[in-house]
Design a protein that fits this description.
It is built from 9 helices and 11 strands. The N terminus is likely disordered. Bound molecules: zinc ion (ZN).
C-alpha cells in the first residue's frame, strides 16, 4: 500500500477559471480542469535519475496519461508524473525521477483503485500544462521552467504569481508565499497574489497575517485592470476566506477592509450566498 498524506491543493474554495492555480490539469479531452479541492497526496519510492539514489518522497497528485501501460516499468515509459516539487535528498535534482519495482507496483494498485472507485481515485488521468502550454511531468520541472522565464523577465508580476501557484501545488507553501509576495512587491494591486497569500495563510490558521492581504485584494478590485469576471471571482474568494477566518475566530476578525465604502454586514455569521454576491458587487463598484 502507498502511504497517504492529506494535502490541500489549490485551496478549498472555487477559484475563478482564470485563477485555478497552475500547473493546470488537463483532462484526456485536452480541456483544462481545476485540481480537486482536496486530494490525497501520495508517497512513492523513487530513484533519482541524476545520481541513482533511492528514497521515499511526497509526490502530491500522481498523474497518468492515456498512453500509460502497466505491462512493466519499461512500458509505462514517461507516461506518469506528479505535481509535487520533490527534490533528491542527495543531489537536489527534481527532473529525472524513475520508479522502482515497489513504486511501480504501488502505481498499478492506485490505477486499479481509480478504475474500481473513480470518485476516490488518487491518480489523475491527464497532464500538467503551464499557462504557456509547456507540459511538465514533475513539480520541480514546472518550478524550473517558471524560474527561467522570470530570469528573462524579472519585473513581471504575472510570472511570479504563477511560480507561487506552482510552489503551492508542489507542496511548498512557504516558497509559494515568498513568490506571491514578490509579485505584490512589483505590483501592490496584484489581485491574484493578494488573494493567494491571504487564502493560504487563513487556511493555515494564521488569520492575523492573512486577512490584510484579503482586504487589500478586495480594495484593489476597483482599480485592477483584470477582466470584470476575474476580479469578481477573486473578490468572492477573498470574501469566503475572510468569512472563514471570521467564523473560526468567533467573530473577532474584520470581514471587510477598513477603507471600503461598504457597510459591514450586521450578522456576518449568518451571511448567505445572496449577501456574498451583493458585497462583491459593492466592492467592485
Ligand atoms: Zn540525486
Amino acid at each position: 500500500m502507498v502511504k497517504k498524506i492529506k494535502r490541500r491543493v489549490g485551496g478549498g474554495r472555487p477559484a475563478a477559471g482564470e485563477q485555478a492555480p497552475p500547473p493546470r490539469f488537463h483532462g484526456l479531452s485536452g480541456q483544462a480542469v481545476p485540481p480537486p479541492a482536496d486530494v490525497e497526496g501520495a508517497r512513492l519510492e523513487l530513484t533519482c535519475g541524476a545520481c541513482g539514489d533511492v528514497g521515499e518522497y511526497a509526490v502530491g497528485t500522481l498523474m497518468l496519461t492515456r498512453e500509460a501501460s502497466f505491462r512493466s516499468i519499461r512500458h509505462l515509459g514517461d507516461h506518469w508524473g506528479f505535481t509535487g516539487d520533490a527534490r533528491c535528498r542527495k543531489c537536489g535534482a527534481g527532473d529525472a525521477w524513475r520508479l522502482t519495482d515497489r513504486s511501480f507496483a504501488d502505481l498499478v494498485e492506485l490505477a486499479l483503485q481509480a478504475t474500481l472507485a473513480p470518485s476516490r481515485a488518487r491518480v489523475k488521468y491527464g497532464e500538467m500544462r503551464l499557462f504557456d502550454g509547456t507540459v511538465t511531468r514533475f513539480g520541480a520541472q514546472a518550478v524550473a521552467h517558471l524560474e527561467a522565464l522570470i530570469a528573462a523577465k524579472p519585473d513581471d508580476p504575472f510570472l511570479r504569481d504563477r511560480l507561487g501557484n506552482a510552489y503551492r501545488v508542489g507542496g511548498r507553501p512557504e516558497l509559494a508565499i515568498a513568490a506571491w509576495k514578490a509579485a505584490i512587491a512589483l505590483d501592490p494591486g496584484h489581485m491574484p497574489s493578494l488573494y493567494s497569500v491571504g487564502d493560504l495563510l487563513v487556511d493555515a490558521g494564521r488569520p492575523d497575517e492573512g486577512l490584510p492581504y484579503l482586504h487589500r485584494c478586495m480594495l484593489a478590485a476597483r482599480t485592477s485592470p483584470l477582466p470584470h469576471g476575474t476580479k469578481r471571482e477573486l473578490v468572492l474568494g477573498a470574501l469566503d476566506a475572510s468569512m472563514a477566518a471570521f467564523r473560526k475566530s468567533g467573530g473577532r476578525t474584520r470581514l471587510l477592509p477598513a477603507g471600503a465604502a461598504v457597510p459591514e454586514p450586521l450578522d456576518v455569521a449568518s451571511l448567505g450566498l445572496r449577501d456574498r454576491d451583493r458585497l462583491a458587487d459593492l466592492l467592485l463598484k
